[in-house]
Amino acid sequence: MxxxxxxxxxxxxxxxxxxxxxxARDGYDIELLGIDHDALHALTADVERTGAVAGYAxxxxxxxxxxxxxxxxxxxxxxxxxxxxxxxxxxREKDPLELSVPELLEDLALGVGGLLTAIQAARPFxxxxxxxxxxxxxxxxxxxxxxxxxxxxxxxxxxxxRSLDTTLAPDxxxxxxxxxxxxxxxxxxxxxxxxxDAIWDAAGQxxxxxxxxxxxxx
Length: 218
Known about the structure:
- The chain is of the alpha/beta class.
- The chain has one domain: NAD(P)-binding Rossmann-like Domain (Rossmann fold, 3-Layer(aba) Sandwich), CATH 3.40.50.
- The chain contains six helices and seven strands; from the N terminus they run βαβαβαβαβαβαβ.
- The termini are far apart.
- The relative contact order is 0.15.
- It comes from Phytohabitans maris.
């Protein structure tokens, strides 16, 4: 039987990288999608040091066609996708009086729309027991006014995850967002590795008591 496969959408050196390494250590092969070629190359090497097989595609997640095509190729190559982890968001330091509608929509295309593209493309390769996880943020409930679009993205992401969970549940696939209730740091409770552990735990919830949102550090 082939090893399970984790697809990381928006892969990079932070939480998404820690998630990739966490799942790889527990027996998953990894597919990475992201825009930073150097970060993808470095993360692929990290994952392969665990003994996992890793592949990556250099793609702008806001390019729906390219993203869907990359996921389809990964699914056809692996013949399965067991977990999709969605990580990207756009940070734009503008308050609501400075932020334009086109800028807001551009940020939403990455931080929310990217999840829609990813799951629609990955769904043909997922089966019962599959999971969708997403990196959420306390910004959904406590937005910083100087980065107004980030709070809208995270609120929208959480809402979409809940809809996905309800839609996919009859097929045995569940979705969860992990709301990180603190700032990422290099030490303490909010290191990328500890957040990745929380995401791993959320994906492994008992289906009978499944929650579509889990808070970490609240």
